[in-house]
Design a protein that fits this description.
The structure is a single chain. This protein is α/β, with parallel strands linked by helices and 337 residues long. Strands 4-1-5-10-9-6-7-8 form an 8-stranded parallel sheet, sandwiched between helices. It has a two-stranded antiparallel sheet with strand order 2-3. Helix 1 packs across helix 10, helix 5 runs parallel beside helix 6 and helix 9 runs parallel beside helix 10. It binds N-[3-({4-[(3-aminopropyl)amino]butyl}amino)propyl]acetamide (SP5) and zinc ion (ZN). The site of N-[3-({4-[(3-aminopropyl)amino]butyl}amino)propyl]acetamide (SP5) has 19 residues, from strand 2 and strand 3. N-[3-({4-[(3-aminopropyl)amino]butyl}amino)propyl]acetamide binds next to strand 2 and strand 3.
Length: 337
Amino acid sequence: MPFVWSDDCLRHEPAAEIWVGTRTPATEVPARATAIREALVAAGARQVGAAAHPDEPLLAVHDEALVSYLRGAWEEWAAAGLPSHRVVPYMFAHRGLMDEPPAEPAAVWARPGLYAYDTMTLIGPGTWEAARAAVDVALTAVDLVADGEPVAYACCRPPGHHVARSAYGGSCYLNNTAVAAAELRRRVGGPVAIVDIDAHHGNGTQELFRRREDIRTASVHVDPGAGWFPHFLGFAGESDAANLNLPLAPGTGDDGWLAAVREATAFASGARALVVALGVDAAAGDPESPLEVTADGYREAGRILGGLALPTVVVQEGGYDLATIGPLVVETLAGLR
Ligand code: SP5
Ligand code: ZN
């Protein structure tokens, strides 16, 4: 199975996350991508270089304003001589503040609050280049599948599934999964299904495709009602004809998780193509989630999704235990094939 790679994805070094007002070490680090690549190469997967793609597929999903903000955010921050060495919001353009959409503020240090929804997703030198490269990686995987490859894997970072039309957060800047799904929809026809098995709800993807029957979304994730990110979305009650949320209790292991993966896969059946948002942070031992899925569980999830026998693009999302993320991705892809 081919996997798509770009060295530019390594250029984003967030350095830290500001969590409950505290500077904590970054979890979404470049070593994640290299660890996954190493495991893929050891398993004999074929590496394909990402091809540069135009902005159109990106702008089919995101507001031009978000994209142009992200493109210039680091340069304008650095030029402003601020005390922080990364872009961090301090005031948020909360919807409770006003009825009309807010205007771009004059101060460079106020701008992040127009687009960011958390304080954990920092921007520095190379963030834009890496996020844009991740989109190219995902779109190159779409090209492979549209040209007849049964499955292609986009080995990209930073991840994307928490990004909505004009708001970024959750260690994500551009929604690689959503861009891939919309482009796959355009290239092979609909409906396209997205099955998101990252430990966290794919809130950005859900909101981007709300009520769109031609791009159906299903997400299996730890219950936000039990206190987990993204906190405000991912509840079962958000489900409708085109969207299925399957929140799971903290501590859920293979049996409960695989039952949900089966349900999400059934929801995707009848689609013409599939995008898997593959986070391996549901694994037992991952520092960012309380789910307890094993390597065998991931392999079985791959088999279940592969049972659809659809043209499939797999896009990397989360997974933070550097010692195991590579093997977990390899297991999932082995099951899929
Ligand atoms: C793509 C993805 O998996 N994003 C997950 C983002 C969830 N981050 C929530 C972090 C909550 C607090 N983490 C404490 C550790 C801080 N270093
Ligand atoms: Zn996650």
